[in-house]
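FAQ: What does a multi-protein file look like?

Like this. Sequence, then tokens, then the next protein.
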Amino acid sequence: MPKIKRFKTYPFPFLAEYTKDYKKTKFILNLHYTSERGTVKFQADYSINNDELIESIKDGTIEVAVKIVCRRMGFSKTYEISKDHNSIEVAYDSMQFEGDVEVKAFLVAKYDFTLENSDLSDSWINERPTVQADNVIGESNERVVTITHIKSGSSKSIFKFTYDLKKDDDAPYSVDLTESDCIVFKLSRKTYRQFEAIRHKGREFIYTLYVIPTIADILRQMINEKVPEGEEVEPNEFNIKHANKRWYIVLSENYERAFNGADPTEGTKHPLEAAQTIIDRYAVGNMLTTAKRAKL
């Protein structure tokens, strides 16, 4: 939805990318986002190219506050940035977010004061408007990041662990890719009992032992054979066989999100590195689906 321009909405100049109350002043917010081992970290830093506003921040007349909102999860937090810094870093459990996370900075009056600034527009330059404490006098651009979890632990899971009655207790696990919705890990009865004992408190071990190596192997098999420049790439047998399966689509979409639109079939990232990144960003912290036994 486009912003509604508010040239005279407030009884004082308002600094925003959609107003013209200032001639050249820009209030810019940058956002850095990382997700690792079930923790999401946001680092927000701002810049203002107006010495008078900066001085008002330093003397405590104005404060800069950053607001983080995830509407889908009902999450909303606001943090004040120290007047001696231009950035703030916060961390949360990744499961507090799903979908778009909106981050924006605001200029907030700490005390009543008269707003004067040499960069004000012609309609404001000769005015001496009074700003009361707690009024917002400006907002930065909005930054949005999208956080998506691989839906483990539900009917939408792409990982399913089963025990296979045909396996001896000491037999290694195997991976079944024939199902459309999920990747099936088949374990012996003994190994499955061990898995059940640690799956809630030892998810990182489960990901390291089973999931990451399997995803890495799948990503390796997705890579099409390189052809001379100008020639059309032919999908390999693995991609032709599995491309329409839901687990394949989920992995492909998360690969693209993790690596800025990169195509997993081109193999621009090492498969093991890519698998670790996908799990760190989209799966850690989630549960794993189980089934009592494998189909025979």
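And here is the next protein:
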Amino acid sequence: MTSLQVRTIIGCAGVVAAVAIACGDPYAVTNKYDPAFPVQFTIAGPDSLFSLGESAQYTATTVPSFSDTSFVWETDTLYNYLKFLPPGGGVTPIDDGALFLKGNGAGHYVSIAPPLEPNVYQIAIAVLVGDVDTTLQRFPIGTIQTQQPRHVAYKTVVVTQRLIRIQLRCPDTHSCAPLAVGDSAFIWVDGIDALGRQIVALTSPTANPAVGDPQASPNTTNRAVATYVSRDSTVASVSPVGSRVGRVTPRKPGSTWIVATHLLVSDSLQIVVH
């Protein structure tokens, strides 16, 4: 290496970034609207939504900056692991995330069909920036003028419906009439989230899909709305029917409590047998 070459390298190492680009790669991308230009995104907003109808506002910043009006928000696709896939295929597990998390295009999103916790959807929202006028070929129309974003970033939002309260009914009131040995009764469970909304698939008081997440019926691999236990099964036993009903069978005179539990919330009804 000649002494001239050494001096050139040392000189470039000590200059500012703009000059360093000129000293280094003469083909470095300097136009921020070029897709190859490195853009750093920061997306701010909630990581999780826990109720039906819950809304969230997301904002984005970039380095380098773009005008606020240039941001476009979208909802990406997701793998719907709750979807029932019949033998032989014919149904795709890939869904449009907007079916569950609806956006208005300006960073505002609303949970419209969340699965019942502990099931969750991990939905990616996308923010696009750097729109420029673009000429595209569209056969058989020919060329069209449109705007295309040059940069995109994603944030994953966890969507679920968390119940803060469940309530039993037998089947129309929060109490059960006395039973006789040989009778049977059906106990129904309702679930309420933090916004006072009922379980997405169970807004009808008589809806009782097959066992499994009500969103995924007839997929039977997921847990039901609640589990039922009799505190004294010698007086009356209970067994699940579908995703939200328990069948009570009297065994002998006495009284007991039927307890329904969903994750950390529970409710109970007293059963009296004559």
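Q: Is there any per-entry metadata?
A: Some entries carry free-text notes. For the entry above: The mean pLDDT is 83.
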